[in-house]
Specification:
- It is a single chain.
- By secondary structure, the protein is α+β, with helices and mostly antiparallel strands.
- It has one domain: 60s Ribosomal Protein L30, Chain: A (2-Layer Sandwich).
- A 4-stranded mixed beta sheet has the order 1-6-4-5. It has a two-stranded antiparallel sheet with strand order 2-3.
- A hairpin with a 5-residue loop joins β2 and β3.
- α1 crosses α3.
- The chain starts with a strand and ends with a strand.
């Protein structure tokens, strides 16, 4: 397989910072773990065979569709949907990429170190979702 594409419905949850117990042990926040499981389920529903890329270098394109806030005027909403206003808020692109890339570790590819090129786009939309495209660079 040289290319895969799938959609994750709902808002994209950026990778949360590790938390620490009183004993000093680090753990991933449950909100992040729940989203990573959702990403894995979305991938496996489209590609039930699982592992698509074993050792080849990969490129990932992640389009994050951000819901337009409710208090926005109709005119500004139209401009936002035409991509005239960048989606500057609601998370860092590197944390969005990290949550999706980590979720697909061992599921779509052997290790996320195979990703040698990545592009993340934040786009205003009526509905929240993420589009994931991963292709082999061989």
């Amino acid at each position: 397989m040289t290319e895969i594409y799938f959609i994750i419905d709902g808002p994209v949850i950026p990778k949360g910072r590790p938390r620490f117990t009183r004993a000093g042990r680090a753990y991933t926040p449950s909100r992040t773990l729940d989203y990573e499981k959702k990403v894995e389920r979305a991938y496996l529903s489209e590609y039930p065979a699982g592992l698509a890329f074993v050792s080849e270098p990969l490129e990932m394109v992640l389009n994050v569709y951000m819901p337009i806030p409710k208090g926005i005027s109709k005119k500004k909403r139209e401009h936002m949907l035409l991509h005239e206003y960048p989606a500057l808020h609601n998370g860092d692109v590197d944390n969005f990429l990290k949550s999706v890339a980590d979720a697909l570790n061992g599921v779509c590819y052997t290790d996320d170190c195979q990703i040698v090129s990545a592009k993340v786009n934040k786009i205003w939309s009526e509905t929240a979702k993420a589009e994931v495209l991963i292709r082999a660079l061989n």
